[in-house]
Design goal:
164 residues; alpha+beta; Aminopeptidase; 7-stranded mixed sheet
């Protein structure tokens, strides 16, 4: 498989939201021992994204290989002309192909196109590879806090990017 074998689309199909929730729950349990609390957190956030979806302000990137979702990324509009990066996930067999870099570039282009003033994201300290991508894109670690939100103690991290 190669990067050009992957289809990236920006629209929802029936079953997409449920499958993205499933992938997050499954992978984060396998890789980081997160519990169903994390899956519930993702489900609530994706429902919020879907219910408040504005084609001019929000974007979803759904990555497919052979008609199966293998990755995702979402940009959610927030108050004060800010955007939030969420649901960034690539299944293990598709990591290392440059897909994450491609998604980040597309995310940053959409931020600029929409003239957002800033963007932010929350992640955990365990997400080393993702954190490297965020830093390369110019996001800066601005806050850390301990949490049990995902069914275990984690150090949550906030990254911010000022655009203007």
């Amino acid at each position: 498989m190669q990067l050009n074998d992957i289809i990236i689309r920006n629209d929802f199909h029936s079953g997409d939201l449920g499958y993205i929730i499933y992938l997050h729950g499954k992978l984060y349990r396998e890789e980081y021992n997160y519990t169903q609390e994390f899956e519930r957190y993702v489900a609530k956030g994706l429902l919020e994204f879907f219910e408040n979806y504005d084609l001019k302000k929000d974007r979803i990137w759904i990555c497919e290989y052979e008609n199966k979702i293998i990755g995702s990324l979402a940009l959610m509009h927030r108050q004060n002309n800010a955007a939030q990066l969420r649901y960034f996930l690539i299944t293990p067999q598709f990591r290392g192909l440059g897909l994450g870099k491609m998604l980040m570039k597309s995310f940053l282009n959409f931020l600029e196109e929409c003239k957002y003033n800033s963007c932010f994201l929350w992640t955990t300290e365990e997400q080393k590879a993702a954190s490297k991508l965020y830093k390369k894109a110019g996001l800066i670690l601005t806050e850390e806090k301990f949490s049990n939100t995902f069914g275990k103690k984690v150090k949550e991290q906030r990254y911010d990017l000022r655009i203007k």
